[in-house]
């Protein structure tokens, strides 16, 4: 079953290389912006100088943007509003469901595509951030802490992005285009409420927690991410068996 | 012993503005059934329910004596389906599509695939989205045949296909049926396909099967008779489908019975014409 799912996931990713490449380019652009903000954040938190920077933007990047790395968001279904009517993901799935593919292999292939996309985009994002960061950044945050920081946000992206295969293949074009906006609004409200309650940004809080607690944070985040993806995969399997595709 | 390859009981599907069923439908091994009906009568919905692409609201579907919901993957290995499903993969070439599809069929015959690709003059390197409507139909038809299915579900396979390829498709389907173990359910508006390929005809209208019959029965039973006059008994006879004036004529779905009735009533038959398949279907849909 895993072999079949992997074969299908690989086949589809290969055929969508243009969308993947475009998504990667956009991701790298955001990574360059992130590096500047992250450096300013670390200097403010752990340095002696007083730095003013847009912590809200940094929060938005990590809270809103990193989960979107689980989707090939620079592809036609996401960019074309016609997808609301055409429902391209359901139509793709209709062909797969007409073939003798076990449901479990089909849903696993969706999860694998999500994970592989997330890995590709996250690698592009964090490698770019790492190279774009100035040398003095690692005087405030050790490479070990920086790695924990990356793994923490990767786990978070897995938790939220794990829902993506379900949205794409378990719902319709309308939901596909509405859900991201619902998430964005929800996350923005969270960012503002958090700042008003705690007095600092979410990313800043995570950086401080990492300084104090280290690896357990990354392990916890990755664990929740894996469990979240597993649960969404099971829900997708059930949904694929019960839904209309055309 | 005659066995059913498809056995559907009480199948229903409800939408806001359309309801399909309840439908009882059977296909015997070695037979071809034509599914005929006007546009929007529910033929495609029916096929999609059989392929489990739509969830039924009631009823059961058994294929090869197995419940579709329990043995779906196994059943689909032996079913070939043409139903316009390839469009979302228009960015792939025909060759890439064949690779995507053939992987899932252990019985896929590469030699047969190459032979059919050449027979229908398909350019394997062409993107599916760039193919003409007829070529797309031919590609889908080839994909449905290459894994040697025991059952073919064909939803208007020749719509938009050139006449030469239509003839080839008919030949291929006749060859497919040759061993007497394989079956076809064919939805079509092409009367020649019904005449040349099918043993049974099922008429679907507004989501319901209004008639199911053996094709050969039609020729024996359905006729138009020009008569001297029409009595009250004949006017209300259950086998008289229609009475028309000037010249006086009637349409019947059971000629032997009506002939006897006319003789009893002393009515002279001036002329008899067997009805064509198209005329019969038109009358049936009109009645339905």
From TrEMBL, chain A:
The keyword Transmembrane helix applies. The chain crosses the membrane at residues 17-38, 58-79, 99-126, 146-163, 175-195, 215-233. It comes from the Bacteria. Keywords: Membrane, Transmembrane, Transmembrane helix. This is ABC transporter permease. It comes from Anaerobacillus arseniciselenatis.
UniProtKB/TrEMBL annotation, chain B:
Residues 3-231 form the ABC transporter domain. GO terms for molecular function: ATP binding; ATP hydrolysis activity. The lineage of its organism: Bacteria, Bacillati, Bacillota, Bacilli, Bacillales. It comes from the Bacteria. Keywords: ATP-binding, Nucleotide-binding, Transport. This is ABC transporter domain-containing protein. It comes from Anaerobacillus arseniciselenatis. It holds the Pfam family ABC_tran.
